[in-house]
Amino acid sequence: MKTSFQILLSCAFTLSAHAEYRTWTRIDGKTAELELTAVTESAGEKSGVFMMRSGHPVTLKASGLAEADAKLLSDWKPAASVAATTAGGPSVFDKSLDGNLVKLSGKSLKTCKDATKPTKYYLFYYTASWCGPCHKFTPSLVEFYNKNKDASFELILITSDSDEKSMEGYAAEMKMPWPQLKLSKVKSFDKEFKYPGGGIPNLVLTDLEGKLIKGSYEGENYVGPYVVMNHLGTLLKK
Predict the structure, then answer these.
(1) In the predicted model, is pLDDT for residue 8 greater than 50?
(2) What does residue 122 show for φ and ψ, rounded to 5 degrees?
(3) Domains in the chain, start-ordered, CATH in brackets?
(4) pLDDT tens digit string along 198-224?
(5) How many angstroms separate the Cα of 136 from the Cα of each of 110, 130, 131, 226?
(6) pTM reported for the whole predicted model
(7) Could you give the CA distance from residue 6 to residue 98 in angstroms, rounded to a whole number?
(8) β partners of residue 155
(9) Cis before 201 (ω within 30)
(10) If we measure between CA atoms, which residue out of 115, 209, 108 comes closest to residue 157?
C-alpha cells in the first residue's frame, strides 16, 4: 500500500506544464512541472523542496533526480527579489511580497516583474474564482484600477482559490491588471496580517505600516468592497 507521501509524489509527477515552473526528471525517467522553493542538506545530501500547483510541498533528494537535475538542485540559489519599477517607501509587507507576486501575462500567471512599491497605500483584494459576488464586483475594480493607478497605491490580490489553474482562469476572464500573491504564500500572509472579515469579496485599504484605513467589514458588519474602493478614490483626489 502506498503511503500518503508516495501518493502525493505520484500525483506531482503527472502534473501538466505551468509557465512558472520547470520540468524536473527523476532517475526513473518520470517528469513533473514543479517550482523549486528551497534546498536543504542532511548527512551530506541535498534535498529540494518543490511546490505543486495546488500549493502542496514535495521534497525530493538529489540522489532521486536525473544527473543534470541533481546538479541544478546542487547549484540552486534563491532568486533575488524583483526590483520595483517605482520606488516607494519601505513597508511591513515587503518581506511577504518581494519576489512572491505573479501577474497575468497573456492568459497565464507569470512572475511579476513590474510590481510597484506604493508611496502611500496598499489595497488588498480578497477574492476567488468560485465567488459569485466577486464576479459581479471585479469588473468595477478593474475599471477603477485602470483609471486611477498611480505611484501612491498598489492593489494585491489574495486568493481564496485552492489551485493556480483556477486563479489563472479567473484572472484571464476578468483581465486583471494587478499583481497577486503566489498561492503558496497566502497562508503565511493571512497568518501574519489579520484584517477584519472572513467573507469575500473583501477589500482592505492600509497604509505602508499595515494600519487599516478602510475595510469591507466594520466590526462584524459587512459594508462591502465598493465603500473601500470609493474611499480610496476620494483619497487619491486630495
Answers:
(1) no
(2) -115, 135
(3) 4-75 (2.30.30), 94-237 (3.40.30.10)
(4) 899 999 999 999 999 999 999 889 999
(5) 25, 12, 9, 11
(6) 0.66
(7) 33
(8) 123
(9) yes
(10) 115
